[in-house]
Write a structure and sequence with these properties.
- The structure holds 2 protein chains of 2 kinds.
- Chain A is an alpha/beta fold.
- Chain A is 32% helix and 21% strand.
- Chain A has a single domain, classed as Rossmann fold (3-Layer(aba) Sandwich).
- Chain A has 8 helices and 7 strands, in the order αβαβαβαβαβααβαβ.
- In chain A, strands 3-2-1-4-5-7-6 form a 7-stranded mixed beta sheet, sandwiched between helices.
- In chain A, β2, α3 and β3 (73-75) form a beta-alpha-beta unit.
- Chain B has 2 domains: 14-187 and 301-386, 3-Layer(aba) Sandwich (Rossmann fold), CATH 3.40.50; 194-289, Orthogonal Bundle (Rna Polymerase Sigma Factor, Chain: A), CATH 1.10.1740.
- The longest helix of chain B is centred in the C-terminal third of the chain and has 18 residues, at 369-386.
- Classes of the chains: A alpha/beta, B alpha/beta.
- The interface between A and B is medium-sized, with 25 and 32 residues.
């Protein structure tokens, strides 16, 4: 290391949900982070785990910021650009709190498990009790710390619950290797064995998937 | 040196390869001269070299005053001490392209042996057509001359970016990082069309003399200037022209009722283009302009790989940074994105960013802080991975 190293993000500033994701990823692996923002996670994975980590980001200002910090990030759209990667190009493909905002979540997930051996997906849980309660009590779209934008301006066009996500994995033949629910601060919920309770009390969920026996879907 | 009036006769630092070089067209250049400049110091491991590839009308004087015009180096903002390509850290090489007119072998060089009756001993239009790949081959010879097996980085914009792509495709093990800027993997029909307008303007100049204009003592300055004016419009954007000149007239504004005239008044933008044209002919050779524009027109990297750009980069370990500019309509972002996607398909490590700018294609040469931060960060990041 020389005095010319680029400025590095400090690991202690890592967002809690990104730290949970980083824990799921084995050292020295190839990782693609979709919607990588300023590249915090890929920097962490390179610096602490020696991963070949790359990113895609749709916000050009974030892309510029990341590349200016020496991180391999390209401008791209999860709905469009994943199709341009070859099969099995990565060990892990990460989609952090973005699945609910893409146009075609099912296709994006299929692409992730085509180009990567594992998909690491986190999303805010629309099945949380407070969301259910607000909708039941007020009869209007819920507004919580997690779901904090009005329905007409939210980028989250495809909200789902933890149980919805389990169902999709079953329908498309993905194996859930690991999963956990957490509160907004990233503290793990204790309902590891009980998806129905996790679906009620977890504010966000994190899944590690791999392809089922039928191999790559759609090829 | 083999330079001839009426362009200023300047000697340029150069190396001669007396065995010459085979060209894509099948001809063999009997002798190859590569004129170049270097900045900074090559380290003991010869691992800190950065090759800068210049654009159509650029040359090797990238980071120092130009010997003919006296103007600052054309990429002073990017190459220099403490700049994104830091010459305190890297050994920077920039060579005049094959076919150029700043000392490398080109149409204005002496033709070895007897050039035949009436040629005056220069190549002129008899100079064989060259390609971007030929230019890169000549640069490869130069890097081998320096004993450099692997370049830390190859960087260039526009035609320079084409050379970067060709380097990465032809010598993947010799390029650690590649930065093709504001470029494309092929020259589009529209771009070829603009080039052809320029060439026809040169051919239409009475001083062209079938390309042997040195015999009459005059250069086809009028035609070359028009070619430059036409090309210069393509380097700018509508917004940049409106901002710089608008519809302003030279001299005093007209009063109401004063007659307009066909030739009396001149818009500021006209005057600007005239100036661009007239200064250009003092430093550039018409035959070189024809040769190099043709080389760009021929460029189609995918066609050289069965029509699939991905094949050009198959298995590459080079790290790429593609950068484009939002108002560049000559080499639009879509072209850079197409390259980025081909690199994705090849499994390459690629960064890709579009810089917001209203300055058109020329933005890559101008003061664009986001662009400079991007290159600086990418190069620093690559240096970490290269162990520099």
């Amino acid at each position: 290391m020389t005095t010319h190293d680029p400025v590095r993000f400090v690991a202690k500033n890592l967002r809690v949900d990104l730290r949970l994701i980083a824990e799921m990823i084995a050292p020295g692996t190839r990782v693609l982070d979709i919607g990588c923002g300023d590249g915090t996670l890929i920097d962490e994975l390179f610096t602490t785990k020696g991963c070949d980590a790359r990113g895609i980001e749709i916000d050009m200002a974030e892309v510029t910021h990341a590349v200016a910090h020496g991180l391999p990030v390209m401008h791209g759209d999860a709905d469009i650009d994943l199709a341009h990667y070859p099969d099995n190009a990565f060990d892990y493909v990460v989609l952090s709190r973005t699945l609910q905002a893409v146009e075609r979540p099912r296709e994006v997930l299929a692409q992730m498990l085509r180009i990567g051996a594992h998909a690491v997906v986190s999303f805010p849980n629309f099945g949380h009790w407070l969301v259910r309660w607000q909708l039941l009590r007020r009869g209007r779209m819920p507004m919580t710390a997690t779901w904090d934008r009005m329905w007409y301006e939210t980028p989250n066009i495809h909200p789902c619950t933890i149980q919805d996500f389990f169902d999709l994995c079953t329908a498309d033949g993905y194996v859930v290797e690991r999963w956990l629910a957490a509160d907004e601060a990233g503290r793990r919920s204790p309902w590891r064995r009980f998806p129905r309770l996790a679906n009620l009390f977890g504010e966000q969920a994190l899944f590690v998937l791999r392809r089922g026996a039928q191999g790559i879907v759609g090829t | 040196m083999d330079q001839t009036a009426p362009l200023a006769d300047t000697s340029h630092q150069h190396v001669v390869f007396p065995d010459g070089m085979a060209l894509d067209c099948g001809a063999h250049l009997p002798s190859l001269t590569v004129a170049y400049r270097t900045y900074g110091t090559l380290n003991a491991a010869r691992s800190n070299a950065v090759l800068v590839c210049h654009a159509l009308t650029g040359d090797q004087y990238v980071a120092e005053p130009h010997p003919v015009t006296g103007k600052d180096g054309w990429w002073d903002a990017v190459v220099g001490p403490g700049r994104p390509v830091d010459i305190d850290r890297f050994f920077v090489i920039c060579a005049n392209v094959l076919g150029g007119c700043m000392g490398s072998t080109g149409p204005r060089s002496a033709r070895p042996g007897d050039g035949g009756p009436g040629t005056g001993g220069l190549w002129g239009t008899a100079f064989p057509p060259v390609t971007i790949r030929d230019m890169v081959r000549a640069q490869k010879r130069l890097t081998e001359h320096f004993g450099i097996e692997r370049l830390f980085a190859v960087i260039g914009g526009s035609m320079g970016g084409m050379q970067v792509l060709q380097w990465a495709a032809d010598y993947p093990d010799a390029v650690f990082a590649a930065l093709p800027i504001a470029t494309a993997a092929y020259h589009s029909a529209q771009n070829i069309a603009f080039h052809e307008v320029g060439r026809q303007a040169i051919f239409a100049d009475p001083n062209w003399q079938g390309g042997r204009y040195w015999q009459g003592g005059d250069v086809p300055a009028r035609g070359l200037a028009v070619a430059r004016m036409c090309a210069h419009i393509t380097y700018l954007s509508e917004q940049a022209l409106a901002r710089k000149f608008g519809r302003r007239l030279q001299g005093a504004p007209k009063t109401a009722g004063e007659a307009i005239s066909l030739f009396g008044d001149m818009f500021e933008v006209e005057s600007y283009l005239h100036h661009q044209g007239s200064t250009f002919v003092r430093r550039f050779d018409a035959n070189s302009y024809v040769t190099i524009t043709r080389a760009m027109d021929y460029f189609d990297l995918a066609a050289d790989h069965g029509g699939d750009l991905t094949q050009a980069f198959h298995g590459t370990t080079t790290r790429f940074l593609l950068a484009s500019f939002s108002s560049d309509w000559l080499f639009p972002t879509a072209e850079s994105r197409a390259i980025a996607r081909a690199l994705n398909r090849a499994g390459a490590n690629v960064s890709f960013v579009e810089i917001g700018s209203d300055k058109g294609h020329d933005a890559f040469l101008l003061d664009e802080p986001d662009f400079h931060r991007t290159i600086a960060g990418f190069i620093s990041g690559c240096a970490v991975h290269a162990g520099l």
